[in-house]
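Translate structure to sequence.
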């Protein structure tokens, strides 16, 4: 059976919807950014906070094509709560007066901070605290 580009597009859309549904995020709150890195495809899954409109890296995956990375991402979102710790980061964007609180799942505090700073200059955000939350 030959797989057509249309089949790939339909399957990609289906998996993206599954990821959105599993995470409980509405349209526009989850961005799927694909790019080629040498012979691999990388997917950056980015969350957008509806309250302050800041975006953060949720997770990235690499694989041999678009469907491969989407399948890996779906597998990750279905199990990440069991594998990673929860962190609370309090921060403020340069020029803002309001302190923000964001939550991240990560293997360690450095990975949580990488997710916070994803795609931005380190000088645009001041971090006030990084707290490992008790596991339940």
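Result:
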């Amino acid at each position: 059976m030959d797989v057509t580009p249309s089949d790939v597009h339909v399957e990609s859309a289906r998996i993206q919807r599954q990821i959105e549904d599993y995470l409980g995020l509405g349209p526009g709150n989850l961005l799927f950014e694909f790019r080629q890195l040498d012979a691999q495809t990388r997917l950056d899954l980015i969350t957008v906070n509806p309250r302050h409109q800041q975006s953060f890296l949720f997770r990235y995956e690499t694989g041999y094509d678009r469907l491969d990375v989407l399948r890996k991402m779906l597998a990750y979102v279905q199990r990440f709560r069991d594998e990673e710790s929860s962190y609370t980061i309090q921060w403020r964007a340069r020029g803002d007066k309001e302190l923000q609180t964001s939550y991240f799942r990560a293997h360690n505090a450095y990975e949580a901070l990488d997710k916070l700073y994803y795609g931005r200059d380190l000088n645009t955000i001041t971090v006030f605290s990084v707290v490992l939350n008790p596991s339940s």
